[in-house]
Structures are given as structure tokens and as C-alpha cells.
């Protein structure tokens, strides 16, 4: 390519950037106006709801449908995710709690779901995230609920039994673990590997093959593991890209998770119910009396209505020895007539039914 052609393309890019800038500014002014209308139309005692997950899901899906490349749909949606995130911050900056410290996969999930313009607040434990949201100190919380390799995150399920919060969204994150070392680590003398117990489990086979005799130490988070390695010359950490960058560690071995599709699903918890988008999921907790065939009976109404269940987990109910509750996720919104019918029947058969929330299927 000649200098002349390069120059011409750069002039074109400058002119396109000017148009994009003008359009983004116009869009931001529209969002400000939306914010003003939301405030002006409030009834007495009502609080303005600026964040609208159902609308955000629609915007992102529409962009993916309209996109003709060369950027792929996910990349394009991610750009719009950030534009919307900054537009929302003009209406009202969102505060979101996640499982800290900084650099955890939970923080990555929060930023993936809400965009970089949120104010994210690290919490020390899952239960604290629930409490922070319940107390109104933050608008939303992001909690891990299941991992494709290791299964349910029981702390999160149990917290739903203790708090009255609503699930307003979900986000799935591909989890790539790396073996990280600090500048002063003697890599041939590593005698200890720190990580969260879940991450150690997700890399078990790799560790057995490469570091069979090295002590594995479970700590409260991957980011905490990364932090510790900074000051120890004989240890390494298993954590992700964010932690590596934040704590200035280098990657000794990358993508060491045993399963290449290793992913974690996170839930967004808050206080606001979300209207239907036409592509939603619902999560419920059901307790049944302790009798033979209880689970079968509970599933009949879902089957009869053709509702597609995506997950069932069982947890001790905490209200009696050997009694259990079922956490069930399925496609559909609680206001869909078919879902409403099925839930009415389930309520009749069960001892207790609690709808944790209906929310848009994860777009990104
Ligand atoms: O449509 C709205 O209600 C808006 O506030 C605008 C907007 C956007 O930028 O598109 C911003 C934040 C909401 O979460 C959803 C959408």
C-alpha cells in the first residue's frame, strides 16, 4: 500500500470518527432525556428505575441481528454494551457489589454484564453481597451460581434461602485459569500453589500431571492467591487475566483448566422485577413434603405445559433433618400464561414455592 493510499484511509477514518462521536453524543443526550422523563413521571412514594435489563437485552440482541460484519456479533455487542453503560451512568451511576478482592472472575462478570461505567464494590463473602443489596447500599450484586466443571455454588443457593432478593439477570463467563508467578519467583523451586478451592478443582488433572508433589493451598479467592504470590519466592497462583494484570504477575502456563469449555454462570441480584422480553428464564425454590415420588409430582406440571427446565439443584432445607428444597431454572417468564398455570399447579402440590425472579436470557 502506498503512503498516499494510507493517508487517504486515515482521512476517511477521521471523518467517520467525527460522525461516530456526534452520533454517540446524540444517543447520550437521548438517554439523559429518558432519565428526566423517568423522574418526571414518578408517582408519589415511587423510586425511579433507571437500569432496565429487559431493554438492554433488546438493544444488544437487535444490534447482533443488524450486524453485517466484519466485527463479529459478540464484539459489536460488547461495544454497544459499553456505550449503554456510559449512557446509563449519565442517568444514574450504578453501584454493584461482587465477590472481591479486585481482579476476581466475579468482578470480570460484573463488568461484562453492566459495562465499565459501573462503580463496583468488592465484598469479602457471598453472604455479604446479599446483605449489601438487601440493605440498599448497592443497587445490584453479582454472585456465582454454577460452574460447568464443578457444579453448584452452594453458598449462593443457601443465601437465597435467607434473603428476599430478586434475580434480575444472568451472565456467563468463560473461565481461563493460568499459573502465575511473580518477578522474584524461582520457577524451578515452586513448592506451593495458591488458588480458590473451586479453581484448584477445575485444574486438578493439570496439577496432577505437572505439579504432583506441590502443596495446593485453598484461599478465599483467586485474586487473593495472586496477591500472596507477590511476596513469596517459592509459590505460584492459579488465577485469571484480570488478577495477573492487577498484581503484575506473569503467566508461566496459560489456560490450564481441565475442560476447555470451563464456564461459570453468575446471577444478578437486586430488588427490581424485570418485565418479559420474549426470551427469558425463571428461577424458583420449591419445598416438597418428604414423601416418595415428591420430585416426580413436582415435575409433572412443568412437563404438561412443555416448559423446558434448564437446571435442578437440591439443598438441605434448614428447617428439618433430611428435608430438602429444589432450586429449579426454566425457560419462560413468570407472567407467561403457560408458566403462570404451571406455577399455580406446583404451588398446590408443594409445601412452599418462591419465585426468585424472571430475567432475560444472557445475551453476551
Ligand atoms: O431505555 C431506557 O430506559 C434507558 O434508560 C436508556 C438505556 C440506553 O442507553 O439504551 C440506558 C439504560 C437502561 O438500562 C436501558 C437503556
TrEMBL record:
The EC number of this protein is: 4.2.1.51, 5.4.99.5
Question: Which PROSITE patterns does this UniProt record tie to the protein?
Answer: ACT, CHORISMATE_MUT_2, PREPHENATE_DEHYDR_1, PREPHENATE_DEHYDR_2, PREPHENATE_DEHYDR_3
Query: What are the subcellular locations of this protein?
Result: Cytoplasm
Q: Which InterPro entries match?
A: ACT-like_dom_sf, ACT_dom, Chor_mutase/pphenate_deHydtase, Chorismate_II_sf, CM_dom_sf, CM_II_prokaryot, G/b/e-P-prot_chorismate_mutase, Preph_deHydtase
**Domain (Chorismate mutase): residue spans on this chain:** 1-95
* Superkingdom, natural source: Bacteria
* Metabolic or biological pathway, per its Swiss-Prot or TrEMBL entry: Metabolic intermediate biosynthesis; prephenate biosynthesis; prephenate from chorismate: step 1/1; Amino-acid biosynthesis; L-phenylalanine biosynthesis; phenylpyruvate from prephenate: step 1/1
| GO annotation, cellular component aspect | cytoplasm
> What does the UniProt function comment say about this protein?
Catalyzes the Claisen rearrangement of chorismate to prephenate and the decarboxylation/dehydration of prephenate to phenylpyruvate.
Name of the protein this chain belongs to = Bifunctional chorismate mutase/prephenate dehydratase
Q: Which gene encodes it?
A: pheA
Amino acid at each position: 500500500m502506498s503512503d498516499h493510499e494510507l493517508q487517504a484511509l486515515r482521512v476517511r477514518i477521521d471523518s467517520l470518527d467525527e460522525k461516530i462521536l456526534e452520533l454517540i453524543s446524540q444517543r447520550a443526550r437521548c438517554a439523559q432525556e429518558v432519565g428526566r422523563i423517568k423522574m418526571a413521571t414518578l408517582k408519589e412514594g415511587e423510586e425511579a428505575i433507571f437500569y432496565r435489563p429487559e431493554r438492554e437485552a433488546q438493544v444488544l440482541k437487535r444490534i447482533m441481528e443488524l450486524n453485517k460484519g466484519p466485527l463479529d456479533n459478540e464484539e459489536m455487542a460488547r461495544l454497544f454494551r459499553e456505550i449503554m453503560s456510559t449512557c446509563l451512568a449519565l442517568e444514574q451511576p450504578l453501584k454493584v457489589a461482587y465477590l472481591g478482592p479486585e481482579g476476581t472472575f466475579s468482578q470480570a462478570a460484573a463488568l461484562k454484564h453492566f459495562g465499565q461505567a459501573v462503580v463496583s464494590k468488592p465484598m469479602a463473602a457471598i453472604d455479604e453481597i446479599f446483605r449489601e443489596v438487601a440493605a440498599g447500599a448497592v443497587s445490584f450484586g453479582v454472585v456465582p451460581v454454577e460452574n460447568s466443571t464443578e457444579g453448584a455454588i452452594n453458598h449462593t443457593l443457601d443465601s437465597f434461602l435467607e434473603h428476599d432478593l430478586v434475580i434480575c439477570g444472568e451472565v456467563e463467563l468463560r473461565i481461563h485459569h493460568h499459573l502465575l508467578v511473580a518477578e522474584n519467583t524461582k520457577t524451578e523451586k515452586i513448592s506451593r500453589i495458591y488458588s480458590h478451592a473451586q479453581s484448584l478443582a477445575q485444574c486438578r488433572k493439570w496439577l496432577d500431571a505437572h505439579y504432583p508433589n506441590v502443596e495446593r493451598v485453598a484461599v478465599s479467592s483467586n485474586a487473593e492467591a495472586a496477591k500472596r504470590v507477590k511476596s513469596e519466592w517459592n509459590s505460584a497462583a492459579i488465577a485469571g487475566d484480570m488478577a495477573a494484570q492487577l498484581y503484575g504477575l506473569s503467566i508461566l502456563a496459560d489456560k490450564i483448566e481441565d475442560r476447555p469449555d470451563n464456564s461459570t454462570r453468575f446471577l444478578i441480584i437486586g430488588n427490581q422485577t424485570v418485565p418479559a422480553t420474549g426470551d427469558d428464564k425463571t428461577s424458583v425454590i420449591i419445598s416438597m413434603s418428604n414423601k416418595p415420588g415428591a420430585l416426580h409430582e413436582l415435575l409433572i406440571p412443568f412437563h404438561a405445559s412443555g416448559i423446558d427446565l434448564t437446571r435442578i439443584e437440591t439443598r438441605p432445607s434448614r428447617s428439618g433433618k433430611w428435608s430438602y428444597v429444589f432450586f429449579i431454572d426454566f425457560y419462560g417468564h413468570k407472567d407467561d400464561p403457560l408458566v403462570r398455570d404451571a406455577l399455580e399447579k406446583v404451588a398446590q402440590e408443594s409445601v412452599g414455592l418462591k419465585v426468585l425472579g424472571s430475567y432475560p436470557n444472557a445475551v453476551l
